[in-house]
Amino acid sequence: MVIGRTDQIPGGTLGGGMIMSASSNPWSAAFAFIVVLAGSTLSWLITACSPGNGAIEGDAGLDGDVIQDAATSLTIARGIVDESFGNGGVVIDHGASGGGEHVYGYDVKVNSQGNYIVAGQTYTGTGGEDVAIWNYLPDGTPNLSFGHNGLVVGNGFGGGRQDNAWDMVLTPTDQILIAGRTQDSSFQYDMFVCRYTPEGILDQSFSQLGYQVHNNAAGGNNYDSGYTIALDSLGRVVVGGGSMGLSEGGDGIDGPLNSDLAVWVFTPEGEFDQTFGSNHDGIFVHSDVLGVNAAERATCVTTDPAGRILLAGYGRDPEGFSQIPVWRLTSDGRLDDSFSDDGFLVERNLVGVVGNDSSGAIAVDQNGKIWVLGATTNANGNADMVILRYDDYGHRDLSFNGTGLMVVDNVAGGRSHDAVGSIVFDANGNAVIGGVSVDAQSWGVVFLARYSPAGEPDLSFGPDGTGIVTTGADYSNDCRLMSLALDRDGVHLVGTGYCLNENNYYDMALWRFE
After folding, report:
1. Using alpha carbons only, what angle is made at residue 4 by residues 64 and 367, rounded to the nearest 5 degrees?
2. Residues 412, 470 contacting (CB under 8 angstroms)
3. pTM given for the model
4. Over pLDDT 70: what percentage of the chain?
């Protein structure tokens, strides 16, 4: 921890920039003041060196060289829209590349400067789709030093007209890595990963071109897509997604009916990591988790401190119902049989109703618990928000809500579909989740909620005692949240997604909460 810059107190000065160590749960520390004046009151603000740990504030009376009646509090988000950001708490982009059609925000991250980096896609107006990357200052204005007026548009990675950015991760030096799919000259889709500099320039030190394109991971030579991306403790780039298998199949889940899980791992230089995978080619493929010729893909990925790779996804069984597969791989690309015996598990029919289940986020908390979030079908045929939590062995964690499972209907008054697709952890170990609640007319509202480590809703979060904060855009009746991030101050939250405009096109949206 670092004590902030020099502060003035009556008759003396508190030395700034001092380093101190602290333990956690609860944190404790000792530090000395250069000058202590009896009878004065001293206030302090301690900011953690690593982002996302909140702001610790305190004050105490001073009596000689002894601090009396010290009180310290940890500031975390209150759960209200920050109306000082952008226009009433939201920033909107109506037409990133001038195409005048759909513009989507899919992921948001906060860089080391405190700027908000958003990745998504934009339609060109001539049938093409391009990667879009935005860079916003903390007040919601574009960072004009990034790309062209705060925006970068990328295309042509595979030689075709369509390039889709599904997920993003930032390196410790603020390089921007994006995973997605790109259309080749034969109109097939290939997985791609690209890297941009902090200034928004394609980084040609990454695989010489600034990007890698790959197809045929599973042998079908037809369809590959990267849906999710992460960095591991070695700085390797981990991309999860799907690839068409050998047998023929029709279209399904955004690709072939018989797609397989595919994981690609690259070195920090952008080359396939030959220490990963059974063939030492940087690729892992796994099939038939949900049955022969079923479809599986990873939609979210994270890594744990041991270097293991955790993925959750979405798959369709031979009967046509979707389920939630969860995998854990060793760092060298093998199924980790210490996780649920086989290295994977499948969740289905979570409320006892045969229907569809899907996942949108996976995370590992500070205690090593594994969180998987998404949606499940209820008895009315609608989707309910679902949170699953596991221990290190892949067993349901019964300390969470008594069962390791939480299902919530009508999260934000939607009375139809509810789904959660993003999670962050605050300084108290609480889980802040974000998603969408959809009404019977298919209009969506953005919601955030906060839960304790035990799975209890935090009713102090939000403006009205419900534990929920909802928002959208003043011109739109349909908004969707796709990603949530914790600001570097550990207090503010930022989220991105999209909202429907009056011309029936979607606009990229960026919200901030405090």
Report:
1. 105
2. yes
3. 0.85
4. 82
